[in-house]
Amino acid sequence: MRTSSTPRTGGPLSLRRAGLALTAVTGLVLSGAALAAPSADAAASTTSHRLTTARSCAVASKPGMMACSALKVTSGADSLAPAARSASGVVNPAATPSGYGPADLHSAYALPTTGGSGATIAIVDAQDDPNAESNLATYRSTFGLTPCTTANGCFKKVGQNGTGSLPSPDAGWAEEISLDLDMASAICPQCHILLVEANSATMANLGTSVNTAVSLGAKYVSNSYGGGESSSDTSYDSLYFNHPGVAITVSSGDNGYGVEYPAASRYVTAIGGTTLKRSSTPRGWTETAWSGAGSGCSRYDAKPTWQKDTGCTRRTVADVSAVADPATGVAVYDTYGGDPGWEVFGGTSVSSPIIAAVYALAGTPSAGSYPASFPYAHPSALNDVTSGSNGSCGGSYLCTAGPGYDGPTGLGTPNGVTAFQG
Prior knowledge:
Layout: H1 15-18, E1 46-48, E2 51-55, E3 67-68, E4 71-75, H2 102-108, E5 120-126, H3 132-142, E6 155-159, H4 171-187, E7 192-198, H5 203-215, E8 220-223, E9 225-228, H6 233-241, E10 247-251, E11 260-261, E12 269-278, E13 285-289, E14 296-302, E15 314-317, E16 320-323, E17 330-334, E18 341-346, H7 348-362, H8 374-377, E19 382-383, E20 413-414
Parallel strand pairs: 5-7, 5-8, 6-7, 8-10, 10-12, 12-16
Antiparallel strand pairs: 1-2, 2-4, 3-9, 4-18, 9-11, 12-13, 14-15, 17-18, 19-20
Helix pairs in contact: 2-4, 3-4, 4-7, 5-6
């Protein structure tokens, strides 16, 4: 089933693409954990078979405005199995979460359980999540991860100018923040986390927050938001995203085939999405392109020198990918603005912080480098995703997964950290 929602202006996103085709996972069961009600500004929910999702943030309605890329599973009899226990077997027996947990993600992407000690991953979002630190504490303790708190120096939250002056809270963006913090923790438990909260969801405020994150020492910056392209994008590139030596990841969007900004920036790593399932293959997992992931050819941004595909003369989205399908979503703990407890999330808001944390595991980028180029030097060190589509583009690789590079999944998904090393 495909539903439509209001398209973003300032870009080629269409009503046809605004719906998401979500396929329920056969044989998996959603737990009884409480799911928070959709936030007041959320767009209409999307239903496929018995899986129902809602956007955490309203679709961006004008140029220069951004929306977060989080999709919350609100109901679904056959959606997800309980998350795997940590290596130590620690899970809260009173509220076992559904969705993939840290052990699942490390298994799927062959990631080390150590590394990144002391490295700072910055999470850039809009508005304030008053419960961010306490929610993170519950996620980490549930899965047996070491505490990451203000007191022990692991966690820090600042406003967009780097001070303790924070914006007003927002329930939808709080869900996004919880998702981002949990995914960074899941992939790199030893990393420090810097949360930078923009005053509002404008590109100017979010971009200022990116600059603040870099000025405070973050070498890895995750951005799980996007909006329609505009002629201002190339100036935004120079103002906010041209940070050599810093890995900046951006969600490709949840509207299917079509390009969003800032994923289209030539200075960032644009992160697509997949459907991730357990299998009897040697890897133990299979992936296909997720129907909701954004992809395509930018209208404004120049092609970076490391991109060699020939079907787009400008910047092509995406570069790499990770799980994003809500039907194979991840466990998240959130308590602000809805029914408190464990929830299941998808969207490319999942894949962006995952890849930012993989960069952190891979080691500090060299001065002057553009980490978006690293996977292009190591394509064989990625899981090539060869099937699935996110829309109609005449069968082109821009919307159809196949061997090698394609739009929805880029060069593929992590297979260890080699592809993310300079």
